[in-house]
Histone deacetylase superfamily protein (Deinococcus phoenicis), 303 residues
Amino acid sequence: MYSSFPRAWTAYQSAAYAAGPPPRRQFLPREFVERLLAGAEARLPLLDAPRLDWAHAERVHDPAYLARWRRGEVTRAEERALGFPWNEAVVERGLLSSGATLAATRDALAHGLGLNLGGGTHHAYRDRAEGFSFLNDVVISARWLLDHGHARRILILDLDVHQGNGTAALLADEPQALTISVHGANNYPFQKEQSGLDVALPDGTADEAYLAALDEVVAPAVHAFRPDFAFYLAGADVLEGDQLGRLALTPAGVRERDGRVFGWAARAGTPLVTVMAGGYNRDPQTLIQTRLGTLDAALAVFA
């Protein structure tokens, strides 16, 4: 059980926006990144993302794979699978994003809540990169928790619009972790892995049906598992108008989703790390407000 005394919550500044971003068509232009960070900093202090030690990555990923990516010895096919060309900033971006999630994990152990404004690179496998994901930051942090005896039942609740295929594969044989993915049935990745629980939704799913799936399918599984630590991938790509998503949630629906997740964790006294995962909306201002709404929902519940 984490300490319950009041504190000023902090968040780690999104490394995903700071170094080597993928094409702007899919990510926020710098002007809007600055607005997002300013909005976050108005709510709580922002800390620079710390760099992950390679030894933590090697507990999850194949050392030979990591060595090749460190040296830039990757093929064009691997670059296409990742979604953008290799350069040193790509590697640094992965280390910073994963380091931020690990730092947020330590925060959650101490105070109940950890926040990373980036992270959620759930398509990375043990020995290959996919879908903007070079390192699987959440699995790296989950492995650190298990290695050090800080948790025995870890929930990874992935509410990004895309199935967390890398996460599911990496933890398929780990009895101390439950992976739950609520995602678009017809969306990337087109070859899905088997999570502990998969909830595949049809194109156009809106607020009412989405929230019903959380209440009727996901919540009972979470309660039955009784996690003593949780990671929440709060993807904003479930919003209507997302370039890479096919669902149709409103910002109010996403706020309801977030409130449910934070409420489950807070009522159970379960330490929770939130990472922001995907979000590629055609309207940057809608994306910013939704991201900030996730922070507001977390602070409202945990404070």
